[in-house]
């Protein structure tokens, strides 16, 4: 009996040892390569994939033979997958993943636009992807500040909603986008205050509390929308737009200049906040205390750090940032507020936070991934002649990519050790 049990344990270890992250990823990328090969067989003979790139004041057209390009990219997926499955793949997962997914995405795009009169505007797509990623960047930064200090913030969706509502209302009443922005930030901070008081002072379960605050924000903004905004939209729900700003010289850089430096002011705020939060977290005493409180609050307390004060402060700061992200939905886009207009972006921001490994720069990259897939599905859904891919699948595409990224791309991730654990001074 003992020998049999030992053999079963050894077999289990052997099986578990084979199913490494590299092997799972490799098999996934081989499957994606086979799907891409199928794409290639569906391309009409002689069709081209056309890309237009903005270069020194004009659009340059790049034509690629669609079928050959798709097959070549499919081959790259299969080769990378095979390498990851082999013993050579142990140390190349991150690079191989980037190569395989980029190849599959390009194959999908080439297959989709291989139609007469259809082209992909590369610079405009980059610009749109960054624009759509903005609220996710800000929401993920809110999550970074909260969770690095040990507080789980599931209420980002609610902070987005109240920020969008308040930004639209105050922006309309004052005819000032800046006033709307400040009001939206303060509204997000107010939700953060509720979270901080109930979670830190009264030790309420943080996940349940976050869900309740989301429902509160949804119900309250929906009620006020129906009673105030819907009755007199011109008076209460016509927010001004915080305009664009073109950076001299930098906006003239070929290809990336218009995408990065001819953007909405929210873009520059978001990028600046990423840099500020990153430097603050990893290169200042503020960040050292924050990370200590999130990893080992008792040890931080023993050297004089006021644990709950640090958590309280960071949750409020995160609320300000999330409120700015909410204001983006209205005064950043000049769109009137509507019920539940954030459509789950706060929860996607939490996924972005995990993809980014609780790091501001990683969160920025994760948000750009979602923004690109969102912009891509918008383009494919509206291109002349329609997309060869069903519109229902295209609508799901950003969320599928996010789920896949959280489940498979980031590998094993570890949240701060004290994340979600209340601290009671002994």
Q: In percent terms, what proportion of residues is strand?
A: 5-15%
Name the poorly predicted regions.
1-16
User: Any idea what the radius of gyration is?
Assistant: 24 Å
By helix and strand content, what is the structural category? mainly alpha
Side by side, the strands of the main sheet go 2-1-3
Features:
two-stranded antiparallel sheet, 426 residues, three-stranded mixed β-sheet, disordered N terminus, mainly alpha, single chain, 5 strands, globular
Describe this structure in words.
The chain is mainly alpha-helical. 69% of the residues lie in helices and 6% in strands. Strands 2-1-3 form a three-stranded mixed beta sheet. The longest helix has 27 residues, at 122-148. The radius of gyration is 24 Å and the shape is globular.
Question: Would you kindly provide a brief summary of this structure?
Answer:
The chain is mainly α and about 425 residues long.
Write the layout of secondary structure elements.
Blueprint: H1 2-18, H2 21-42, E1 48-55, E2 58-65, H3 66-85, H4 93-113, E3 120-121, H5 122-148, H6 156-174, H7 177-201, H8 206-229, H9 233-236, E4 244-246, H10 256-261, E5 262-264, H11 265-283, H12 285-295, H13 297-302, H14 307-328, H15 345-355, H16 360-382, H17 391-409
Parallel strand pairs: 1-3
Antiparallel strand pairs: 1-2, 4-5
Helix pairs in contact: 2-3, 2-4, 3-4, 5-11, 5-14, 5-15, 5-16, 6-7, 6-8, 6-14, 6-15, 7-8, 7-14, 11-12, 15-16, 15-17, 16-17
């Amino acid at each position: 009996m003992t020998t049999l049990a030992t053999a079963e344990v050894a077999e289990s270890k052997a099986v578990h040892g084979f199913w490494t992250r590299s092997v799972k990823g490799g098999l996934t990328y081989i499957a994606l390569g086979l799907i891409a090969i199928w794409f290639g067989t569906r391309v009409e003979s002689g069709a081209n994939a056309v890309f237009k790139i903005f270069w020194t004041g004009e659009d340059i057209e790049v034509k690629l033979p669609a079928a050959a390009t798709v097959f070549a990219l499919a081959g790259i997926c299969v080769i990378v997958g095979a390498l990851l499955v082999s013993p050579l793949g142990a140390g190349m997962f991150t690079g191989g993943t980037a190569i395989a997914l980029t190849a599959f995405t390009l194959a999908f795009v080439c297959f989709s636009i291989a139609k007469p009169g259809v082209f992909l505007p590369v610079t405009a797509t980059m610009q749109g992807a960054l624009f759509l990623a903005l609220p996710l960047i800000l929401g993920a930064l809110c999550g970074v500040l909260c969770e690095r200090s040990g507080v789980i913030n599931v209420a980002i969706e609610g902070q987005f909603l109240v920020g969008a509502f308040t930004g639209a209302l105050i922006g309309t009443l004052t005819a000032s986008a800046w006033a709307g922005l400040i009001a939206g930030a303060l509204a997000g901070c107010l939700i953060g205050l509720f979270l901080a008081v109930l979670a830190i002072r009264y030790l309420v379960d943080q996940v349940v509390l976050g869900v309740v605050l989301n429902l509160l924000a949804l119900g309250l903004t929906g009620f006020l929308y129906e009673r105030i905004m819907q009755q007199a939209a011109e008076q209460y729900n016509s927010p001004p737009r915080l305009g664009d700003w073109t950076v001299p010289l930098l906006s003239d850089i070929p290809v990336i200049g218009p995408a990065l430096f001819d953007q909405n002011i929210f873009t520059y705020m978001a990028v600046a906040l990423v840099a500020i939060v990153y430097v603050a977290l990893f290169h200042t005493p503020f960040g050292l205390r924050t990370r200590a409180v999130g990893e080992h609050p008792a040890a931080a307390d023993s050297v004089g750090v006021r644990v709950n004060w640090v958590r309280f402060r960071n949750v409020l700061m995160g609320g300000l940032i999330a409120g700015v992200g909410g204001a983006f939905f209205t005064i950043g886009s000049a769109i009137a507020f509507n019920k539940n207009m954030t459509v789950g972006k706060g929860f996607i921001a939490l996924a972005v936070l995990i993809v980014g490994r609780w790091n501001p720069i990683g969160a920025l990259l994760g948000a750009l991934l979602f923004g690109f897939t969102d912009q891509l599905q918008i383009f494919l859904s509206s291109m002349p002649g329609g997309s060869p891919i069903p519109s229902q699948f295209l609508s799901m595409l950003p969320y599928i990519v996010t789920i896949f990224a959280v489940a498979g791309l980031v590998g094993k991730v570890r949240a701060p050790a004290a994340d979600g654990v209340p601290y009671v001074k002994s």
